[in-house]
Specification:
It contains 14 helices and 9 strands. Helix 1 runs antiparallel to helix 3. The termini are far apart. The chain has a 7-stranded mixed β-sheet with strand order 5-4-3-6-7-9-8, sandwiched between helices. It has a two-stranded antiparallel ribbon with strand order 1-2. The protein has 2 domains: 71 residues, no CATH class; 210 residues, Vaccinia Virus protein VP39 (Rossmann fold), CATH 3.40.50. It is an alpha/beta fold and 342 residues long. The chain is 45% helix and 15% strand. Strand 8 and strand 9 form a beta hairpin. S-adenosylmethionine binds next to helix 7.
Length: 342
């Protein structure tokens, strides 16, 4: 049978064998083999079979044709993807990309879809920070300042689990510091220091004490339940006693995640973690690019690290041009043999 003699497959450069367009048929079967359940559609696009098929198809179709082909087939297979009620999902939001990952024209998308896609991308960037640190891990604990809502903490628990780090570092602990919705302190100095930030904290206290809700969220996440601690209160009150015991136990921080919004809290937390950071460890600042005071404070932290601990910080990656991940490491002594990676 001659190519292009059949019209129903809709492809310009189809190639027919016994009345069937081979790649389109394979395409249908690759989709069909996977259940049309929407709970795990990402399985389709991640499978080796899918990637092999895409490579094969790509040799025969232009970029635009490929995009249309995929859109049409996925829309047929997963009609729910087009419904407004379909909640964020990898495949759904990856629909903003064409087959090669370039962004499609957004003309015609609803404002709701645009917003959700955009937020989806931002959250994905944040999860990439956790995955990046976990993919080259040097041990130590995960210590987070500003944990309200637990997006970043849950990201890291999953990244830790996904990367199989537990086998080599079964002792890693996960700490989250925050007021968790409750303003309370017995210390007049603490209360004075946050007085001018009342409006900021009000935003996080509108729903009252959320400690139990946060514990429930972690229980639902169901990873390393015996190794996390959520520590409620102002850092000014909770961190100094924690730090004393932490040092006594000889523990070190492998990843300090700072998501504390205000310059004052950044300054405080840089001071707390300075001597606790492991020699090879990570630090992430969620407002690094947004608040240039954080850049300045971090530069001070970095200079002090160099002077007092002979350690430096190297930039790893950004999170949506808002936050930045850095690696801390000893300064290499040139007179000594080279280091092996890994
Ligand atoms: C942006 S939220 C954290 C979001 C969280 N990392 C997530 O991804 O879900 C910032 C948090 O920092 C907390 N925070 C800022 N300064 C603080 C301080 N001095 N003591 C305790 N909590 C503080 C706030 O209460 C707020 O809950």
């Amino acid at each position: 049978m001659e190519a292009d003699s059949q019209q129903d497959c809709g492809e310009k450069r189809s190639h027919w064998v016994s009345g069937v367009c081979k790649p389109c048929d394979e395409f249908d079967r690759a989709l069909g083999e996977r259940s049309p359940q929407l709970t795990e559609p990402r399985m389709i696009t991640n499978s080796a079979a899918w990637r092999r098929l895409m490579t094969k198809l790509s040799l025969r179709h232009t970029d635009d044709e490929m995009t249309k082909l995929i859109d049409d087939r996925l829309a047929k297979q997963f009609p729910d993807m087009l419904s407004r009620n379909f909640w964020p999902d990898t495949l759904y939001f990856d629909n903003i990309h064409n087959a090669w990952g370039l962004l499609k024209s957004t003309k015609g998308y609803s404002s709701e879809f645009k917003l959700q896609s955009y937020l989806y991308w931002q959250y994905r960037e944040k999860s990439a920070i956790a995955l990046a640190a976990a993919s080259s891990w040097y041990g130590g604990d995960y210590v987070e300042f500003g944990s309200h809502d637990l997006y970043t903490l849950r990201n890291f628990l999953s990244a830790y689990d996904l990367s199989g780090l537990d086998k080599a570092w079964p002792d890693t602990r996960f700490y989250g510091f925050d007021i968790f919705g409750k303003i309370a302190s017995d210390n007049p100095m603490t209360l004075r220091s946050i007085e001018h930030l009342r409006r900021y904290f009000d935003h996080f206290t509108e729903r009252g004490d959320l400690y139990a809700e946060h514990v429930r969220k972690l229980q639902e996440h169901d990873l390393y339940l015996d190794r996390y601690s959520l520590i409620q209160g102002f850092f000014q009150d909770t961190v100094p006693p924690f730090k004393e015991n932490y040092k006594k136990d000889g523990r070190k921080i492998g990843f300090a995640l700072l998501d504390v919004n205000t310059t004052e809290s950044y300054e405080l937390t840089f001071g707390y973690i300075f001597d606790l950071m492991a020699e090879r460890s990570y630090i992430y600042m969620d407002e690094y690019f947004q608040n240039y005071a954080v850049i300045t404070l971090f530069e001070d932290f970095r200079k002090r690290l160099l002077q007092e601990r002979n350690m430096d910080c190297t930039y790893v990656r950004s999170c949506a041009a808002l936050g930045a991940l850095f690696l801390l490491h000893p300064v290499w002594d040139r007179s000594r043999p080279g280091l092996a990676s890994g």
